[in-house]
Design a protein that fits this description.
The protein has 142 residues and is α+β, with helices and mostly antiparallel strands. It has helices at residues 25-35, 40-43, 45-49, 60-75, 77-80, and strands at residues 21-22, 84-90, 99-112, 115-125, 131-141. The protein has a five-stranded antiparallel sheet with strand order 1-3-4-5-2. The protein is elongated, with a radius of gyration of 17 Å. The relative contact order is 0.23.
Length: 142
């Protein structure tokens, strides 16, 4: 992957990485093991049916990993060495069977200290186009 430089990025640009993932109950259950979060809302389908969601839902941080994958594939080391997600809000649940796609758009580019900072609106949307997570991503380039 070629290194992305700030001169290649402009306000209004969409993040050019295409990722699509279908979330399964197995993925959610494995995330529960890794995160040691066995809330029945995530791991018990029978319990999930009794909730307003009508099923289990994915852990929020599992869903965020798809955004992190997009940002890492786009910015590489620049993201890994100090990129930040900010103001993240979980606005709609991700359920087993949902296909989610992380997306983003550059909304600011500025000089800050010794580098050029880019700020992006980022979101995760499901197969219906519903945003499930919204927030900001900030990284320093050059």
């Amino acid at each position: 992957m070629a290194e992305v430089r700030s001169g290649d990025i402009h306000i209004g640009d969409e993040i050019p990485i295409q990722i699509e993932r279908t979330v399964t109950q197995e993925m959610i259950s494995r995330w529960a093991e890794v995160s040691v979060d066995f809330n029945p809302l995530h791991v018990d389908p029978e319990f999930g049916q009794t909730t307003p969601f009508g099923s289990t839902i994915a852990h929020g941080h599992l869903s965020i990993t798809y955004m992190l994958e997009m940002l890492t594939r786009w910015l590489g080391e620049k993201w890994l060495s100090g990129g930040q997600l900010k103001q993240m809000r979980f606005v709609s649940p991700v359920k087993p069977g949902d296909t989610v796609t992380p997306k983003g758009k550059v909304v600011d580019k500025r000089l800050e200290g010794d580098g050029k900072v880019i700020e992006c609106d980022v979101w995760l949307e499901n197969q219906d186009g519903t945003q499930t997570i919204v927030g900001k991503a900030v990284a320093t380039l050059d």
